[in-house]
Amino acid sequence: MARADKQAAVAEIVESFNDSAGAVLTEYRGLTVKQLQELRRSLGANANYAVVKNTLAKIAATEVGIEGFDDLLTGPTAIAFINGDVVEAAKGLRDFAKANPTLVIKGGVLDGKPLDASEIAKLADLESREVLLGKLAGAMLASLSQAVYLLNAPIAQAARLAGALQAKAEQDPSVLQGGAAAADEETAEA
User: Fold this and answer.
1) Which residues of the chain have pLDDT under 50?
2) Do 85 and 7 share a domain, yes or no?
3) Per DSSP, which regions of 1-119 are E strands?
4) Structural domains of the chain, count
5) pTM over 0.70
6) Helix axes 33-43, 86-99, angle to 10 degrees
7) Domain with 152 in it
């Protein structure tokens, strides 16, 4: 590969690292071209799956400022540059690796920090962004409902008290005078 071609390839990898939310390194040894195409399709718009040369990927990672990547760049390597939901892409890779054991997830990088394979697995076990947002919205709605109930409780008590006072006043009008009418009657009789 000519020097200019290498520089262009490194620049392309650097751009992919910069444009992506994260990247997952895999070893694809043993996968057929058809299986690689299936993997790319299964990732869809979430990720761009590209086979890279290890030396060029090391140079690109150094240029981007990612450290601790060299250990992962051994053997045939392909990188899934994740553009969309990181959790969904990690799930897609995990599920494909379960169906095709020859795909090995080596590790990755998220927000410039290296991740090992177990951390990628933990990431894949998370619920999707939409589900987490739904749970958050449900929790907030429950909290708001409880707050509304607590704020309405004193008003409802005051209304019940006023209703009880009105019913009592209809039975005994002296209740509204604070019992003063009964005291006036007693002084008048004496």
Assistant:
1) none
2) yes
3) 22-27, 47-52, 77-82, 104-110, 113-116
4) 2
5) no
6) 150
7) 132-189
